[in-house]
Amino acid sequence: MKKKLVKSNKDRVVSGVLAGIGEYLNIDPTIIRVLFALTIFFSFWATIIIYILLAIVIPTESGQSRQSASFEGEFSEFEKTTKQGKRPRKEAEKVEDEWSDF
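Structure tokens predicted for PspC domain-containing protein:
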């Protein structure tokens, strides 16, 4: 199967371009990020323009996005319990001390 250059959903920091390039070249994305940071200083910020263009042109990896995958378990469980009414309401504990008047 032919490899495609896509933005990564698993190891993204800003848009996933550098991690996608690292996965495509079978190189650690950290090395790509360090090289990117170094080229910013030597190319008089032209690298940032290239990065923005790549973020627009390179397609996103198919599948779930990082945000939806990370929140899916939390919210789906919460929605299930609140819709069914099985989740008990938590009661606050009353604290008796001398400083509660302030």
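The CA atoms of residues 93 and 100 lie 13 Å apart.
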